[in-house]
Amino acid sequence: MIDYDQLEFRHLKYLQAIAEEGTITAAAARVHITQSAISTQIKQLEELFDVELLNRERDGVTLTPHGEILLAYGRDLLQGREDVVDMLNTLKTGEMTALKLGFSALVEKKTLDTIISTTRRIFPYCEVLADGDEVEDLETRVGSGELDGALVTLPIEHNSDLMTCTIEKVPLVVCMRADDPLAAHEAIPTHLLTGKLGIFQYQKAHRAAYSRLLELFKSVGIEPRLTKPTMNREHIQWTVLEKQGYALVREGARLMPGLTTRPIHGVEWTIDTALVLKPSSQHPALAMLLREFRKRAIDLGSIWIPQLPQSLTSSNGKKQPKSVKAKHGHSLSLFEAS
Known about the structure:
InterPro entries: LysR_HTH_N, LysR_subst-bd, WH-like_DNA-bd_sf, WH_DNA-bd_sf. Keywords: DNA-binding, Transcription, Transcription regulation. With 338 residues, the protein is α/β, with parallel strands linked by helices. It has three domains: 4-89, Arc Repressor Mutant, subunit A (Orthogonal Bundle), CATH 1.10.10.10; 97-168 and 271-318, D-Maltodextrin-Binding Protein, domain 2 (3-Layer(aba) Sandwich), CATH 3.40.190; 170-270, D-Maltodextrin-Binding Protein, domain 2, CATH 3.40.190. 39% of the residues lie in helices and 18% in strands. It contains ten helices and eleven strands. The strands form two sheets. Strands 3, 4, 5, 6, 7, 8, 9, 10 and 11 form a nine-stranded mixed sheet that branches. Strands 1-2 form a two-stranded antiparallel sheet. A hairpin with a 2-residue loop joins β1 and β2 (60-63). The N and C termini lie far apart (49 Å). 28% of the residues are buried.
């Protein structure tokens, strides 16, 4: 019978220190125990579960695949412990303030509603205040502390002091009339879209995204159709119905009667929604929300770790580990973080 109590938080903390420092000596100094003590603890853990967690070499140590798996889940558990302790301390001192959350124009209403409803479910005593603004202004307001976080579509002119957590990736598809001859294709060849596929929303609402989209069009040989910028989605679909070209829309978007969507052949573009926040001094409700999204990512078969600012490094000058996420096939995000 497995004794689950044998695995403790301290083991995860030690393993994380070893992975990030690269040597037992440096890890021991970081967690304030002796080198022999941390070695003994990890060795006991290996013997208990009959697996090797470390590759021990003359110039340092690295994690084995078993060690990587344990650390990936362990980071989430360690962060969860910190989140719970912070939440309890906040409730104890009676300093619960409203969660101030910004959002940009291209963020889907259902995504914002999901964020708010999830926050209220896991943190029922917290008021949520949502405020729309331009992407650049949202970054500034998060950086100054006026907002606790902001939902934006990527890419952004990234403030080096902020952390970006991608919470949603939605494929982009071509919107066209259902009776259009191209609708007979399961996926539209790129050469058939030249001069027909328009860019409507991004020119005014998100300049960085517009530039990125032009780059992607060019990379596959699509010359975009010239269009007048608009944020009115019904107007965009009406334009398609009137045979004035095609439009890129989110997969699953609600369409007017007579319209359909098709993917672009050989292309997997996504529109990514991210939560931008400070890596420290987080609102406790926001910390619990991030934990909820980490858990969802693990349940879906991927391991999600926020992208930290480049300025955050470990004590030995090495960058902290970046996101480790399972990739399924080749895809190129329209709005990857820069």
